[in-house]
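PROTEIN DESIGN WORKSHEET
SECTION A - STRUCTURE
LENGTH: 108
TOKENS:
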């Protein structure tokens, strides 16, 4: 159970990370800034800043939002991505229709 201020900080930073693509480091900066704002205001709820996590991973855990990942094979030259189950030995990407095929090895 969260107090309203802590819940707001959790939701805002989760949105910044998950929907806006803010990095883990930048989320830590945002959380620190929000913590400082809460410390500087003379709140009717002293100590509410102590309920603000320092890391976005804690925020996501607190909100029961586990990360979902997918595995891809990425070409080291052109960064084209392939699903591992149907991945060729060499990259088949073309930057443009008239460009040559990349042909970089996808596995060492």
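SECTION B - SEQUENCE
RESIDUE ASSIGNMENT:
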């Amino acid at each position: 159970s969260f107090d309203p201020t802590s819940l707001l900080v959790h939701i805002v930073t989760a949105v910044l990370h998950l929907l806006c693509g803010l990095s883990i480091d930048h989320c830590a900066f945002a959380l620190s800034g929000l913590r400082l704002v809460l410390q500087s205001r003379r709140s009717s709820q002293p100590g509410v800043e102590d309920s603000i996590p320092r890391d976005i991973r804690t925020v996501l855990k607190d909100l029961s939002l586990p990360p979902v990942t997918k595995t891809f094979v990425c070409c080291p030259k052109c960064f084209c991505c392939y699903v591992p189950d149907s991945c060729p030995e060499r990259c088949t990407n073309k930057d443009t229709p008239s460009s040559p095929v990349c042909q970089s090895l996808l596995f060492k």
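SECTION C - NOTES
Helices lie at 4-18, 24-40, 56-62.
The chain has three helices and two strands.
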